[in-house]
Known about the structure:
Mean pLDDT of chain B: 89
Strand content of chain B: under 5%
CATH topology of chain A: ABC transporter involved in vitamin B12 uptake, BtuC
Largest sheet of chain B: 2 strands, antiparallel
Structural class of chain B: mainly alpha
Helix content of chain B: over 70%
Oligomer: heterodimer
Amino acid sequence: xxxxxxxxxxxxxxxxxxxxxxxxxxxxxxxxxxxxxxxxxxxxxxxxxxxxxxxxxxxxxxxxxxxxxxxxxxxxxxxxxxxxxxxxxxxxxxxxxxxxxxxxxxxxxxxxxxxxxxxxxxxxxxxxxxxxxxxxxxxxxxxxxxxxxxxxxxxxxxxxxxxxxxxxxxxxxxxxxxxxxxxxxxxxxxxxxxxxxxxxxxxxxxxxxxxxxxxxxxxxxxxxxxxxxxxxxxxxxxxxxxxxxxxxxxxxxxxxxxxxxxxxxxxxxxxxxxxxxxxxxxxxxxxxxxxxxxxxxxxxxxxxxxxxxxxxxxxxxxxxxxx
Amino acid sequence: xxxxxxxxxxxxxxxxxxxxxxxxxxxxxxxxxxxxxxxxxxxxxxxxxxxxxxxxxxxxxxxxxxxxxxxxxxxxxxxxxxxxxxxxxxxxxxxxxxxxxxxxxxxxxxxxxxxxxxxxxxxxxxxxxxxxxxxxxxxxxxxxxxxxxxxxxxxxxxxxxxxxxxxxxxxxxxxxxxxxxxxxxxxxxxxxxxxxxxxxxxxxxxxxxxxxxxxxxxxxxxxxxxxxxxxxxxxxxxxxxxxxxxxxxxxxxxxxxxxxxxxxxxxxxxxxxxxxxxxxxxxxxxxxxxxxxxx
Lengths: 323, 295
């Protein structure tokens, strides 16, 4: 579904292409190291969680061509489990985050196996419906706390030693987790496995005729994406000490689509840029109340009609580089 | 009063009735989605918002113009359908050559806009819509009490659904429609204005949603969220039925409403999720949907 960002000309300039990603990566890391000194660290940390979430979502839409409209399921349920593990079971934060991620992976296996049985538009509807089912279960089950969610989750001590109540320490941890996830996605995309995913995106029938069991590739990509979304959700639960219905409801699934769309579907850096922009917008415009929803809708419409490459995609297209 | 499987018959028939009512809305909405998808190849995410707009239009007509239920049943679908035509002309028509997913994203954005504006002006509480006098009251059928309005909703929904089916399968305009769905280029070569047909189809599908909205107004309150909650369930209904068949959409809609109602009697904890569970089972057993064709 994506328009190709790279045109054949750039094939010859692979050195410059390689460098463009490295340069962008260095710029991003520098910006993220400097950011907490310029703006609120808590905002940057929250944006980093959403950035990882959007990157995970983008792995599916951008590189396999699968639009999941239910990624809140993995994000939200992982955050519930991480919060529960840290608060009730008293696990250390890294184990709580791992618990959340594992649950997201398990949900990803189930939902993915069901959803990949249909293509295109149906895939989106199935993922949305399954996520809504997860929402209703979160609403009913006791341990999620219903409307209240799980509140005052302790940040705890990393490995039982390092106090995470310190904002600087927390920032380092969140940044490290984000970069680990980001790097993993980068590795996936550039691996032989990732090449097959892109082949499926371009022409699934041909990939099948070349002997690839595309269902297995799609399922693995789905589970990886769900797990990384879970990592983002768990981290957010520990960071903000709360897991709530907002994280698991359908508008959250829409938000992550919007973040990736604004930044640029199928670009590595796009979702990061998009999530910072959307989150900043929500903070700055919070006083507008329900109009924020309207503005988000307008951005959706504008992006689809006029600006399908997104911000990073547009830059990459103009400069004929890959980002 | 007698019992069936340990459940008082009144409760059972009551839930069955509620199930049929919900099924009426599922059928009307999934029918509209199927008609639109057939022509435009777009899943209309705005469908829920347009259903809400139908209910809202009926409410506003009553409050500010004193126009009652019966005229609203005609006026609201026309107004909302016209709005749909504007949306198609302004936005959707630019997407037909692109991937289907862009249509979903665009209509999702429009749904957010409509819902956001609705929430700003109405809040989320919900506004009551008074029943027309002619449909107040009800009949005692011996085994249950049947309110007149509920009977009317089921009858009207069935009539509209079957009428739509007849329109598409048995009339000339329906034949054009089916032909244009199969091969638009060839149909254009016969001198039929396919783009206009597409526009009208969208308007018709949207009008169906608005009609469902007007009928829903006296049962549920009129609230900005009423559509988004429903549309996701309707998506599951569409996945179960498959969008290949008009009759399939209608049957699936009613059947799932009834199943949901029965679940409320025998296993209330699962009543919210039963449709999604059925969707999962259908995907395992018959991935193309009950009435779908394998693509």
